[in-house]
Amino acid sequence: MLMDCDNVLDERIDPYELERLRDQYETQVRRGQPSHLAKFSFAHGLIKSTKDDVHQGIAILEQLLRENDRADIAMRDYIYYLAVGHARIKDYDRALAYIETLLHAEATNRQAITLREIIEKKMRNDGLLGAAILGGGGAILVGSLLALVFAGRK
Questions:
Q1: How far does CA 120 lie from the centroid of its chain?
Q2: What are the sequence ranges of the domains in the chain?
Q3: Are 57 and 65 spatial neighbours (Cβ–Cβ below 8 Å)?
Q4: Helices 36-47 and 51-67: crossing angle, nearest 10°?
Q5: Number of separate helices (H) and strands (E) present in the chain
Q6: What distance, in Å, lies between the first and last C-alpha atoms of the chain?
Q7: What is the pTM assigned to this prediction?
């Protein structure tokens, strides 16, 4: 999914569209197991909604990432939107860990590079960039572990 990265953290979903995605997802849940596409579409919508919804979207994306048994475009999207979600709730260390994971696998991914720059700019604006560098060991570890998982599934 290609989108304008300059406003990816500020983009909001129309509430009616989110309800349509929620209905689609819940209908599939009632029938059994929702498709990966229905889960992703709903999670993507949640990421662009309220803070509480962002947390739910992150949980669904993390579940999709765990369930994914192959490296593909879907996994790239899961990781990218996990970074977006974490950045939206100002969990910048984790957002950067996901972006670094993606960049480890795809060093020239312009969308990921741009998102990293946006996150770092937000951290500087919030006075957190120095703190993240000093305390970034945990984020680097998380990123490294995710990179191993991501690389191992190729």
A1: 16
A2: 11-67, 70-154
A3: no
A4: 150
A5: 8, 0
A6: 20
A7: 0.81
